[in-house]
Amino acid sequence: MIKGPALFLAQFMGDEPPFDDFDSICAWAAGLGYRGVQLPSWDPRIIDLAQAAQSKSYCEDRQAIAAKHGLTITEIATHLQGQLIAVHPAYDEAFDTFAPDFVKGSPNKRQAWAVDQIKAACTASQHLGLTAVPSFTGALMWQTVYPWPQRPAGLVSEGFRALAERWLPILDHADSCGIDIAWEAHPGEDVHDGATYEAFLDALDEHPRACLLYDPSHFILQQLDYLHYIDLYHERIKAFHVKDAEFRPDGRVGVYGGYQDWQNRAGRFRSPGDGQVDFPAIFTLLTKYGFDGWAVLEWECCFKDAAQGAEQSAKLIEDWLIRPPAKAFDDFAGGASDPGTLRRALGLDS
User: Fold this and answer.
1) 350 domain residue, yes or no
2) Does residue 239 fall inside a structural domain?
3) Cα–Cα distances in Å, from 206 out to 164, 170, 191?
4) Does a structural domain hold residue 272?
5) Digits of tens for pLDDT over the chain (350 positions)?
6) Handedness of CA 49, 51, 56, 61 (dihedral sign)
7) 196 occurs within a structural domain
8) Which structural domain, as residue segments, surrounds residue 85?
9) Pairing relation of β-strands 267-270 and 244-247?
10) Model pTM?
């Protein structure tokens, strides 16, 4: 069955206790009812990624801290580093924020650093006994997402070919570690929906480690059928973020948001249970297809306080978890059968 509830720590880290170190935030999360924590690889207060890649004993120490509070480490997330695998020059300055000072202003050095980071996360995940590394793909084409001005013929295929060239060495390293790379289909990335994932997968020659993190909130904002997405790609879904959203357009703003702040956009992220995502249907489909990973709260809401959202969401996720039935509900009405019974039931022997 799906495991949970778990909490992605990225949005909760801060400068004040209990949010300023790994031990304290684990105690806080456990107190709310969480059973797992997803680690942001870019926060050294949570994990020293270089040390985790080099030392299995360091990883065991991290596990011991979590276990002391009854928690499991679910995944090491690499979204910010994944973003830096591919950055169009239009976004260089904005995305330099995600990089350490010694590579800022140098796109090639920044990319090489990001590659090393994600490889390190794969090695560290192997040390921790994990199975997936969540990430972003980065983007070479996002500025062309709307077809005006008209895209030159062949630009999309060349873009995915170039993106695949950057990711293949990482995927091969992940494979050697027994780790799936689970990309979150997300606006701002070249892989932001099912069609773009299929195009990228084709450019990667269907690499077995090229997988997905499922987050329905971004599909609400795109007006994509987030349940059918599970039907289409369930074999590649290796991680799951529980994040809610709503889409409420009016005469002023729609999908593009009118450059408004989050509270005034048509598409807004909400705390679980406050938006439009049908989570019981999602948990049902993921259970149907045998997903046995973690249901991880990624909390983002432009109205509700984070602490309140985290407290409420732990109980919601617990209630949404489905235990697969030990037997069919109509077993009581069945009967023993043999070849003769079956033929008589079909009217073949009378």
Assistant:
1) no
2) yes
3) 11, 14, 15
4) yes
5) 999 999 999 999 999 999 999 999 999 999 999 999 999 999 999 999 999 999 999 999 999 999 999 999 999 999 999 999 999 999 999 999 999 999 999 999 999 999 999 999 999 999 999 999 999 999 999 999 999 999 999 999 999 999 999 999 999 999 999 999 999 999 999 999 999 999 999 999 999 999 999 999 999 999 999 999 999 999 999 999 999 999 999 999 999 999 999 999 999 999 999 999 999 999 999 999 999 999 999 999 999 999 999 999 999 999 999 998 888 777 776 777 888 888 888 999 86
6) negative
7) yes
8) 3-345
9) antiparallel
10) 0.95
Task: Give buried/exposed letters for 135-173 (b at 16+ CB in 10 A, else e).
Answer: bbbbbbbbebeeeeeeeeeeeeeebbeebbebbeebbeb
Q: Do 62 and 128 touch, CB atoms closer than 8 A? A: yes
> Rounded to whole angstroms, how far apart are CA atoms 146 and 267?
18
Buried b (16+ CB within 10 A) or exposed e, 55-80: eeebbeebbebbeebebbbbbbbbbb
The total of structural domains in the chain comes to 1
Helix 279-288 vs helix 306-320: angle between axes, to the nearest 10 degrees? 50
Q: Write the CATH number for 291.
A: 3.20.20.150
Distance between the two ends of the chain, CA-based, in angstroms?
Answer: 45
Phi-psi region of 154 (alpha: psi -120 to 50; beta: other; left: phi over 0): left
